[in-house]
Amino acid sequence: MQITITGQHLDLTEALKNHAEEKIGKLDRHFDQVIDARVVLKHAPHENPENTADVTMYAAGHVFHAVSQHADMYRALDLVTEKLESQIDSYKEKRQDRRNDNPSGLAAIAEME
């Protein structure tokens, strides 16, 4: 998975980049069909909370997107990762349910007889 990290109105430190790559990279364990992930970290001092983590993940046939805000940028990354994990799990369950609802192949022929 290719991860692109950009920052708006803040300097991206190596520690922040590494944290984002580590957190988003772990999502690859849950769903191995992710092609690309784009992370946008924003700092807006006039808003409350100030920091926003915006992640868009492109997978085969689906796009996952989540946004999280927190005063601490590291915590915002943690929260957005949790949201994406939840979306991926929900998507996988939905795919599995659909697969089980419409039996095909030899199993469907055996049930008909």
UniProtKB/TrEMBL annotation:
Biased composition annotated in UniProt, kind: Basic and acidic residues: 90-101
One GO CC term on file: cytosolic small ribosomal subunit
Biological process, per Gene Ontology: methylation; negative regulation of translational elongation
Renumbered residue ranges of the record's region Disordered: 90-113
Keyword Zinc: no
Keyword Protein transport: no
Protein name per the record: Ribosome hibernation promoting factor
Organism whose genome encodes this protein: Acidithiobacillus thiooxidans (Thiobacillus thiooxidans)
Highest classification ranks of the organism: Bacteria, Pseudomonadati, Pseudomonadota, Acidithiobacillia, Acidithiobacillales
